Amino acid sequence: MTALKARPMPDSIPTEAELIARALALVPVLRARAEAAEANRSLLDETLQDFVAAGFYRICQPREFGGYEHSPEVLFRVSSIIARGCPSSAWCLCLIGVHNWEVGLLDPRVGQDLWGQDDTVRYSSSYAPFGKVVEVEGGYRLSGQWPWSTGCDHCSWVMLGAVVMKEGAPPEMRSFLIPRSEYEIIDTWHVLGLKGTGSKDVRVKDAFIPAYRTHSFMDSFLRKDPGQGHYTGSTYLYPFGTTFAFCLASVALGIAEGALEVSVEYFRERLDVNDGSSSMNDPFFRQRLAEADAMVRGLNYRRDAAYARMDKYVSAGKHVPVEEGAASKWDAQCIGKGAVEAVDLLFKISGGRGAMLSHPIQRYFRDVHTASNHAFLNADKGSVNMGGLLMGAEPKDIAV
Predict the structure, then answer these.
(1) Where in the chain is CATH 2.40.110.10?
(2) Segment 160-164 long-range contacts (CB within 8 Å, at least 24 positions apart)
(3) For 12, 247, 325, 348, which has the most beta carbons within 10 A of its beta carbon?
(4) How far apart are CA 329 and CA 249, in angstroms?
């Protein structure tokens, strides 16, 4: 099967500014839908259609298949904005959107399998190695049940992780791309936070996956992903593990931004129940809001600085070195941790009203804590890896 011609034409590709404007326009819409998204326990159909119409899933998709080939940073900025309105919807958008970027790292036949007939196809994932895999002639056979496959209700493929064991060789972490006909979705998503992401379980029974339709984490670590000889856009020079960590951190950052926005709005109008005075005149509230604002702006600067360092390599057509990938992933993990601290600060000053389900701050509080628990944002493990690298040790994390 021959590749599709590049589409859309370059003059129809929206700029970063245009995509950000579309995201900003959706924030009040999504904030009004946030409660319904939680009740639905999955991305709302109308929100999915808004994302499709805005072109958000195409941001990092290869141009060969109708994408815009922007930097992942564009997707992350858009997703941060979306998170201000509805964190669950942003989590779904960013994770599925970064998958479309991941295709640019894989064997070109994967793109054809996904988008040869329909370039709007999406896939969800669960990279943690919960499955059991056996290497066979021409590929692998995979079985198991994987949790946390965000957005799987609106996807027709899934990428699932497992460790390949070979005699005389170290264990190899791979993920395997499987069509909807080969897996079952199990509704297990009854959770505290990110309720509207539909991150349900996926079950597979003895599915065959051709070897080309897999992603080797070691290939990414060694900067030898097979797609990079075919997809020549510079966006595919960013490292997989670091990019995936920033995907999650950017949503956490957007949650903190949203919490700050609603807190400022709330305290502008709030009156003290004892004397009727405005909270605007209370130095305690002013101090806490200022501290949270400084934290959020600092996290944005940290993300910008990390990408500025990586962009020096990417803009020159070079891979990001492993050491820089590790340092940037540590930045992403610190952003996730800092977002929690900022939201905690704001939740604390919201008082008893902040615990009411009618107050949006409780949603940001629940969602940012849930987001930060993702394995890729584990700042404790990240600190051990980064501290070792600073002292000349070998990296313990290959997802950088």
Answers:
(1) 123-216
(2) 160/125, 160/126, 160/127, 160/130, 160/131, 160/202, 160/204, 161/126, 161/127, 161/128, 161/129, 161/130, 161/131, 162/129, 162/130, 162/131, 162/132, 162/133, 163/129, 163/133, 164/133, 164/135, 164/140
(3) 325
(4) 10
Angle value at C-alpha 45, between 41 and 50, nearest 5 degrees: 120
Confidence bin at 395 (pLDDT 50/70/90): confident
Report the amino acid identity of residue 380.
Answer: D
How distant, in Å, are the alpha carbons of 58, 368, 370 from that of 75? Answer: 9, 19, 21
- List 134's β-bridge partners, or say none: 141
Distance between CA atoms of 108 and 359, rounded to whole angstroms?
A: 47
In terms of DSSP bridges, do strands 200-210 and 139-149 run parallel, antiparallel, or are they unpaired?
antiparallel
User: Where are the CATH 1.10.540.10 domain residues in the chain?
Assistant: 10-115
The answer to whether 256 and 295 have CB atoms below 8 angstroms apart is yes
- According to CATH, the superfamily of the domain at 10-115 is Acyl-CoA dehydrogenase/oxidase, N-terminal domain (1.10.540.10)
Tens digit of each residue's pLDDT (9 = 90 or more) over 91-124: 999 999 999 999 999 999 999 999 999 999 999 9
Q: How many CB atoms lie within 10 A of CB 31?
A: 17
Q: Does domain 238-390 have CATH number 3.90.226.10?
A: no
DSSP state of 118: -
- Listing DSSP states for 39-50 in one string gives HHTS--HHHHHH
- pLDDT of 285 reads 84
Closest CA to 200 of 160, 150, 159: 150
CA distances to 48, 81, 115, 125, 276 from 44, rounded to whole Å, are 6, 18, 24, 19, 40
Indicate the residue type of 157.
W
Query: Which CATH number among 2.40.110.10, 3.40.50.720, 3.40.50.2300, 2.60.120.1440 corresponds to the domain 123-216?
Result: 2.40.110.10
State the Cα–Cα distance between residues 178 and 208, nearest whole angstrom: 9
By C-alpha distance, which of 291, 211, 222 is closest to 259?
Answer: 291
Q: What gap in Å lies between CA 71 and CA 63, rounded to an integer? A: 13
